[in-house]
Write a structure and sequence with these properties.
The complex is a heterodimer. Chain A is mainly α. Helix content of chain A is about 70%, strand content about 5%. In chain A, strands 1-2 form a two-stranded antiparallel ribbon. Chain B is built from 16 helices and 23 strands. In chain B, helix 11 runs parallel beside helix 13 and helix 13 runs parallel beside helix 14. Classes of the chains: A mainly alpha, B alpha/beta.
Chain lengths: ~375, ~500
């Protein structure tokens, strides 16, 4: 029989080891699922985890995609992780991502076709502002009226999606697009484009922003009193008040940071890889980033690795879909397993597993 | 008399700590047996083994003639062991009968249960209305719920863990009468306490533990409290030295403080006024739940009020937060150590930063100076004899008494001008309690104004210059401690809550 025994202090070893264990368990369970679907599990794992990076045939396309897909995930997840640490649950990063993209793209399109160096920086500011404003709605409602920020931020995603649809059909529609929905292509408008900075790497301004956010969050959490207060508020809210933390101000701050970063991610995406506003512009980065944040233990370095891993499962998953004919749902289930196992093995951080029945008195 | 419980050579080791080493003791029917010891001496571990919460590594227990190794508290209860914990496990939103039912293996129908609760409470002089909501009960009444819950199971052995810490002197007397009645009917009682005078009046035998071992057994009535304390601690105790302190200006003044409680089922403060001069120690007594927590919050700055209601050196600070008040030299130590005064999962270093950051200057432009913080934490551990493997361990890994030493030490180490402290020695052993009291008096000698809120009257009488009591959110007038009698204090505290009909005659 198995039983759990509480550890006196959380285990540092297992804090680092549980994500690795979760990935291994996901591979095993996912392999079984793929086998039941009639595919060779070893082939499937190789296609998902190995081929995108090292197979000569695919790597030239997939390797840059790794950074392109990981950057928005990391950028959003870093912002979310600060709030999650403080017990502030922003579930609506997807909406903030859309609003950031819309605000940024609108500024860029307003200047079209002028050519100025300051257009792109202005778009970055607008993108950050769009995400920030969208996050301030649940933040202020929570700190003023104690509404549930989970619900409000989530529902605002659907509002944002409708605004996105309206914009791509109306205000921001490309006048030269023959009536099709969607804006002008920003990536073909040099003053507003977010280009690949080093050819063949996928590196663009958003990737740089993601790495900077990782370093900034790490310094904030390890060295700054604000980071300490964020952790304190999440772990022991009453002790945080004793330490002089103002809970309302912390909500506004954490929601503001996560909204800003999500908005930036949206702007970099719309000006670069996606190129334009379209009805289906958002692909769920804002939700996947929640998984990335937890997969990375809410730790900046962990989030960076988790973002890269999650991007890999996306790229590898797509590859597996057309190489092996795996259904898209199976790939989603595979990604879901990752979060499931991560949360399940998390118990090892605070508990140790003991084998055998409860011990009686020794003779 | 026959033997109810016999423990032979019981040993329990935790990683890095021997909690119990070769402990033996024996309790007879009808005996009130005291278990005495410092914090970390192994008392809790021992009773947890008897109650089935912890399993011994070696040794054996014999309960009523048969080997006894309960796998769970449920099994221990079925065998006839009852336990009243120091911390109550009651649901405030439920009524008394529902709470009692939740603690039973097979509760009878509510009507029958209510009748039995009335019967038992009458038989043992513990009046309790089964239909009252626990949230509305005083601490003393809540303890009665726990005791009656045990008595309904007809225990052969009743374990009481620090039962008097939440009672007025009158309530203590009533509890003792109940315990003596139980003993006279043949129930064995294992009584854990730090209060040596209580043990001398109540207990027949005592087993004294030190560092996990039995160091002595004695008959408490034949020993002085001092002798027992020295057996327990292993050294000679000196009572705190009181220096004659000249009083300075009024450092802390509270005027007409009225504020609703931020705590569910809390007590609103009603027109509280007090005045403490530099060098003065004000002792505030009161049964738990009469506004102590709220008063601490209002003084520490966690609960804001109108500016003039709280004044530091004549300046209104009622609207300032904790850190602004710390900058004005006010430090506070809340009663609840884990979760309020300290963050359970954070290390002692991080917990030192928690309230020390302002006065110790532990940040530069917002960036934390970790080396200085580590030095500060290590200093607290050394100065206040906090027993811990190091400052890197999580606060929750420390025993209650050690964490208390750390939390109080953290505040007293910040060269405070005003100290507000709730339950400074709660759950702390005699030697450490003496050290904490001495440290408080030393700060007062250095010119600090001190407010000590405590439920330990002996403590207040020992260190306070002036005395007041909280009763349902109101504070009595401040009186000099000299010349106060225990009876007067009891009346200031509101007498015995809801006990008017008990033990008449």
């Amino acid at each position: 029989m198995l039983r759990l025994e509480r550890r006196p202090s959380p285990s540092r070893f297992w804090q680092a080891a549980t994500p690795v264990l979760a990935v291994l368990l996901t591979m095993i369970a996912g392999g079984i699922m793929f086998a039941l679907l009639g595919k060779n599990p070893v082939d499937a794992m190789r296609t998902i985890f190995w081929d995108p990076l090292f197979n000569a045939q695919f790597a030239s396309y997939s390797r840059p995609q790794l950074l392109v897909k990981a950057a928005p995930l990391i950028l959003i997840a870093i912002g979310l992780s600060l709030g999650f640490r403080a017990g502030i649950w922003n579930i609506g990063a997807e909406g903030q991502y859309i609003m950031g993209a819309l605000a940024g793209a609108a500024v860029g399109l307003a200047f079209y076709p002028a050519d100025h160096w300051y257009i792109f920086p202005l778009m970055v500011l607008a993108g950050a502002f769009g995400g920030w404003v969208w996050a301030m709605i649940p933040a202020i409602l929570r700190s003023r009226f104690n509404t549930n920020e989970i619900l409000v931020s989530l529902l605002l995603v659907y509002v944002a999606e409708n605004i996105l649809a309206s914009m791509s059909l109306g205000l921001l529609r490309n006048p030269e697009g023959g009536g099709f929905p969607g804006s002008r292509n920003l990536s073909q408008y040099p003053s507003a484009a977010n280009p690949e900075l080093i050819a063949g790497t996928g590196m663009h301004w958003g990737v740089l922003a993601a790495f900077i956010s990782v370093i900034a969050a790490y310094v904030l959490l390890q060295r700054h009193i604000l980071g300490f207060h964020i952790k304190l508020a999440g772990q022991a809210p009453r002790a945080a008040r004793f330490a002089g933390v103002n809970p309302g101000a912390l909500v506004v701050l954490c929601m503001g940071i996560s909204g800003t970063l999500a908005g930036l991610a949206g702007l970099f995406e719309v000006a670069g890889p996606a190129g334009k506003i379209s009805i289906d512009f958002n692909v769920g980065y804002g939700f996947t980033a929640i998984i990335v944040a937890f997969l990375g233990r809410l730790n900046p370095i962990g989030i960076m690795l988790a973002g890269l891993l999650m991007a890999l499962t996306y790229i590898g998953g797509e590859l597996a879909q057309f190489m092996l004919g795996l259904p898209a749902a199976a790939i989603q289930a595979f990604q879901g397993m990752l979060l499931f196992f991560l949360l399940a093995v998390d118990v090892l951080t605070n508990f140790r597993i003991r084998l055998g029945a409860r011990m009686g008195v020794a003779p | 008399m026959t033997e109810v419980l016999r423990i032979e050579g019981v040993t329990k080791t935790y990683p890095g700590v021997v909690a119990n080493a070769d402990v033996s003791l024996s309790v007879q029917t009808g005996e009130i047996h005291a278990l005495l010891g410092e914090n970390g001496a192994g008392k809790s571990t021992l009773v947890k083994m008897i109650y089935g919460l912890v399993r011994p590594d070696a040794g054996q227990m014999i309960f009523r003639g048969a080997p006894f190794a309960p796998a769970s508290p449920g099994a221990a209860r079925v065998a006839g062991v009852g336990m009243v914990f120091q911390h109550f496990s009651l649901f405030e939103a439920l009524d008394v009968a529902e709470n009692v039912a939740l603690g039973m293996e097979n509760p009878p129908p509510m009507k029958t249960l209510a009748a039995r609760i009335r019967q038992v409470s009458q038989d043992y002089g513990l009046p309790l209305d089964p239909s009252r909501r626990v949230g509305d009960l005083s601490a003393g009444e809540r303890q009665r719920v726990e005791i009656i819950r045990c008595l309904l199971q007809d225990p052969k052995l009743l374990i009481m863990d620090e039962p008097t810490s939440v009672l007025t002197p009158q309530e203590v007397a009533i509890l003792f009468r109940t315990l003596r009645q139980l003993a006279s009917e043949g129930t064995a009682i294992l009584y854990i306490s730090h209060k040596l005078e209580e043990i001398r009046t109540l207990c027949d035998e005592a087993t004294i533990l030190r560092r996990g071992r039995v160091v002595a057994t004695c008959t408490p009535r034949e020993q002085s409290a001092r002798e027992m304390a020295e057996l327990m601690v292993g050294t000679t105790l000196t009572p705190p030295a009181r220096r004659n302190r000249p009083l300075g200006h009024v450092a802390l003044q509270v005027t007409g403080l009225s504020v609703p409680s931020p705590i569910p089922f809390g007590t609103a403060l009603k027109d509280v006024s007090l005045k403490v001069a530099a060098g003065e120690v004000l002792g505030i007594a009161g049964v738990a739940g009469n506004g102590q927590d709220e008063l601490l919050l209002a003084l520490s700055g966690e609960l804001r009020t109108a500016p003039q209601m709280v004044q530091i050196d004549g300046k209104g600070v009622g609207d300032l937060g904790p850190n602004a008040r710390r900058a004005l030299a006010l430090v506070a130590a809340p009663e609840e150590r884990l979760g309020h005064a300290a963050a359970p999962d954070m290390s002692l270093v991080e917990n030192a930063l928690l309230s020390g950051v302002v006065r110790k200057g532990l940040t530069k432009r917002g960036f934390i100076d970790w080396p200085a913080t580590r030095t500060f934490a290590a200093g607290i551990v050394a100065d206040f004899d906090v027993r811990t493997p190091g400052t890197h361990v999580a606060a929750r890994a420390l025993s209650g008494g050690n964490l208390q030493k750390f939390v109080v030490g953290r505040e007293l180490s910040q060269s405070p001008g005003i100290i507000v402290i709730n339950q400074p020695t709660w759950g702390v052993d005699a030697a450490a309690a003496a050290a904490i009291r001495q440290a408080i008096l030393d700060r007062a000698s250095d010119g600090a104004a001190v407010v000590v809120i405590s439920q330990d009257l002996d403590e207040l009488l020992e260190i306070a210059d002036t005395f007041a009591a909280l009763n349902e959110g109101r504070l009595t007038a401040q009186r000099p401690v000299e010349g106060l009698t225990v009876d007067e204090i009891g009346l200031m505290m509101g007498g015995a809550h809801g006990m008017e009909v008990a033990h008449h005659g």
